[in-house]
Design goal:
Number of helices: 2
Largest sheet: 4 strands, mixed
Helix content: 10-25%
Strand order of the largest sheet: 1-4-3-2
Oligomer: single chain
Distance between the termini: 35 Å
Structural class: alpha/beta
Radius of gyration: 15 Å
Length: 127
């Protein structure tokens, strides 16, 4: 039924202008204004719609993942751009940079938040 539809994902933000600056300038994505929100145009043709919501509640799960070849370089670059990485201890342990290093179970990954508090990640391909 939906095999040939151009599906896309979406999530909300409480400040579309802040989201536009973050996704377009800080993360360097191609961003367009659409239907009162933002279209995020991802590499490989993926699309995400960020829509305004006054009573927005940040997602408590990862809404967008960015695969990278070198997680240390990505985290360092984003940190220099003002992005703050989450730090976890317990079941998931992150290092001083905020990277959860793979112990043979999944990729190296680091989580950060957008201006609306939604959780995003960078994860290292091939780990």
């Amino acid at each position: 039924m939906f095999k040939d539809t151009k599906a896309f994902s979406g999530f909300s933000a409480n400040d579309i202008e802040a989201a536009k600056r973050f996704y377009g300038e800080t993360l360097g994505l191609s961003v367009s204004e659409e239907m009162g929100g933002l279209g995020l145009h991802l590499g490989g043709g993926g699309e995400v719609f960020v829509y305004p919501k006054d009573d927005h509640a940040p997602a408590s799960f990862t809404v967008l993942n960015f695969p990278v070849e070198d997680i240390d370089a990505a985290v360092d670059g984003l940190t220099k751009a003002g992005v703050r990485f989450e730090h976890y201890s317990g079941e998931i342990e992150t290092d001083e940079k905020g990277i959860a290093r793979s112990r043979g179970e999944g990729p190296n990954i680091a989580w950060f938040k957008d201006p609306a508090g939604n959780i995003l990640s960078v994860l290292e391909e091939g780990t």
